[in-house]
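pipeline/complex-builder :: batch 7 item 3
reading input block
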Amino acid sequence: MSAISLARVAGGASRRIFVLLALLLAVLLAAPWIANDYLLTVLIVILYSAFTGQAWNIMMGFAGQLSLGHALYAGLGAYVSAVLFVDFGIGPWIGFLAAVPVAAAAGAIIGFLAFRFGVAGVYFAILTIAFAEFARIGFDHIAAVDASAGLFLPVRQVAHNDLWHLRGDPTMFYYVILAATVAAFILCRLLLESRIGYFWRAIREDEEAARAAGVATFRYKMVAVMISAGLTSFAGVFYAFFYNNLFPEQVFNIGRSIEMILGPVIGGIGTLFGPILGAFVLTGLAESLNAAMAAFGLDMPGAKQVFYGVCLLVVIVALPQGVWPPLARRLGLAKDKP
Amino acid sequence: MTSHKRPSRRRVLAGAAAAAATTTLAMPAIVRAQGKGPLKVGVLLPRSGFEAGIGQDCQRGVDIAAPILKSLGLPALSIINGDTESNVDTAREHAEKLIEDGAQLLVGAFDSGQTTAIAQVAEQKGIPLVINIASAPQITEQGYKFVVRNFPTVSMLLNDELSEQKELFALVGDEPKTAVFMHVNDLFGTGMSKGIHAMMPKYDLPYKILEEISYDPAARDLSVEVTKAKAANAEIMLVVGRLNDAMLITRELVKQRWTPKAILSMGPGWYENQYTKTLGKLSDGPMSLVPWYDPNKKLSKTLEAAFAKAYPDYNLNTNHVFTFEALLVAADAYKRAGSTDPKALAAALHATDITDNVTIGPGIKFDANGQNTGVRCGVVQNRGGKQVTVVPKEAANAKPEWPMKPYQSRA
């Protein structure tokens, strides 16, 4: 990264934030030496949520466009890379390069239809759901990807981690998703500090005013959708190679889209740390409830979800802007910039 | 931006977060037992989420297993329950957790996607996995060394369901010439429809499908669909669906005063407890072609008695028997291995040869891929609020009632 880019990433951030980030990164880098495989898997789930939350945040948090169908982009990424791997032996990294334009094109189609014809707000959200549902039903009938029977990636037993083919133990997957989350964080920071970031925020705050000020709102909203979709497709590639099976009913399910937005909603929409903090709070809470119930010898399936829902409700009512903004103020990290 | 200063709530939240982090990070270190004592079996089932009903049903098979296994002279199992929450991600996470908690063998997990995720963890960790229910063929085609499955694959299911129809027709001495086919239009229903059409020519079935009617699995009313089916004037009705639509179709059949010669279901719904309990005498007659237990086997009688005692309001079904058998396989392998060493357990699992079992078929024996190729489906008929087995002959405990008694003539 050039000095200019570094300066842009750092621009406006306090020294305290850097210390905090360095500490967090150091802890996360050291995690595989401290945590057992279960905790490492939990951390993978957390970072996966943080990554997808960050990608979704570009659209909603930065540009103010509510998407409730982001599972579409993750699903496309998953299927494109999986098909290339299963049918042509092409590795996931090249698969990712193929998945990005496919997901971005899907985003562009949705964006074009919505932004050109003035579909906005909740109607835009419904459109995103409709496309994800369309993909779910469509993939259920595409024989080339084994339709509803599910697409299974062959699982090879490898003596050593094979990063090129993403075949290996949880530690390798952990570092991959950690690197991706850090990269997404830096990318989002760069975007926010760029001209486009200011345009997005202008659109988010008042689209009419932004247009009146000369911002090409259609163009910049399209860019937001395409970047967000392309980034989300990586999550799909990761999912495909980590879980090794894809069912349209699960991959494109609206529940997946909701899971993606929960992190930023809880953490703080439009903030850089919100999706990361939200992912830690949500998954940490869920796993802690599991552990607490086990410790008390409670075996009540479903009770965890009820308690989890109540906790979420409490967080949302008590902290309507998300956990990060008040926490940042408390830690003395709050600035005008997110 | 509005500022919300609620220090007490923050403190509560911070305290909760700290407690949560402490609890999570303070997971006990696990010492894996090697030697005598019960085998620690981690059972992963979807006991919450959208598959909760089935997961909890499978759990009943776990809960009644201990005394029966003991009576067979098999070693004790120490069960650690895990909930996949009907979710692939959670299934993988909880497989890791159960292994960290000391599980020396895993059992689960009803759903193919969840089972695949668990199988990878099991294989990576070298901890054996006995699959109770999951039919995706790919699971046992990965060359896994620690995974075995005592449940038919999709193609085995379809082969059995079609071949046993011919056996049924021969048994009743009647070959229906026409059928109407009703199925849900979700992934299960459409998948089955494609499979049936593709495989029908191979089995030279006597009937022709006059009409195929698909419907939404969440349908609240199927009167139009049943009217259409009735208008086809077919002799028998083939169905692929679930509990909700099974009840809707039956009610419509009664309302529209049409009783086909036979209702043949290739899936769940029609044999389920809620179906027979809710519809009473109207539930009698339909036949289900499903993996089932052989009521004539000695162990089946023992299991039936134990189940009836523990759950008097439920009938023994597929979910219970296959989950029970997964534990039977585990205990048997542990006995022969004489050790909790994963490699010894895996070797013992692959050498399994149980003839005194519950399900239909010659017994439990795994091929090189870990698949029990001997497990068979049966044809079961609802009679008097329970299920009787009518096909195959060696597993039958009743003669089929053919044709179905008209709904109108039932008191």
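note: DSSP finds 13 helices and twelve strands in chain B.
queue -> next item
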